[in-house]
Amino acid sequence: MKDTKIREVLEKDNSSLAKLIRLVLLEIGVPKLGTAYADPELDFMYQAYLKEKYAYFVLEENGYVTGGAGISPLKGGKSSVCELQKMYFLPTARGKALGEKMIDHCLNYAKEQDFEICYIETLPYMKAAQKLYQKKGFEYIDHPMGSTGHTSCKVWLIKRL
84 with 120: CB under 8 angstroms? Predict the structure, then answer.
């Protein structure tokens, strides 16, 4: 049985997490501009999530980071709205219901921070991700929220917490 856990990001995770996220983004063919690929905090995830009401969690399997996801206040949005951010997993971590566990972990954190709505944006062809979000209670909306800078992401969903 694998040793699998979800924990908060540590500074030592910065390099491996940046590589993991970029690798997954390239694998799924996302544009480098207008997506998380171009986000300046990608190389410094630990530092980027040190702020109040921010948290990034990594999935660790047998001592290796194989995925992650975060919660933060929605940039340019109402204070009651958070965003589920940068949820990516290596192929070895997929198909094990770990995405569901990660979303649950993130949403529990969001509730603890008194957020009322969780927002997420994704790309139209990321059908497996959309299916998972719907399974976890997210519903489609017809417009973006906030000012994330992810102009290539044309699918938006929310969940009331």
Answer: yes
CA distance 88 to 22: 9
From the CB of residue 65, how many other CB atoms can be counted at a distance below 10 Å? 21
pTM above 0.85, yes or no: yes
- Beta-carbon contacts of 8 under 8 Å, excluding residues fewer than 6 positions away, are 55, 56, 57, 58
pLDDT band at 152 (very low <50, low <70, confident <90, very high): confident
Identity at 116, one-letter amino acid code: E
CA–CA distance, 12 with 33 (Å, rounded to integer): 27
Domains annotated for the chain, with CATH where assigned, are 4-115 (3.40.630.30)
- Specify the 3-state DSSP secondary structure of 26: helix
Could you report the per-residue pLDDT of 57-98, keeping only the tens digit for each? Answer: 999 999 999 999 999 999 999 999 999 999 999 999 999 999
Average pLDDT over residues 119-130: 91
Tokens 């991700």 — which residue? 129
- Give CB contacts under 8 A, 24+ apart, made by 77-81: 77/119, 77/145, 77/146, 77/147, 80/114, 80/115, 80/116, 80/117, 81/115, 81/116, 81/117, 81/118, 81/119, 81/145, 81/146
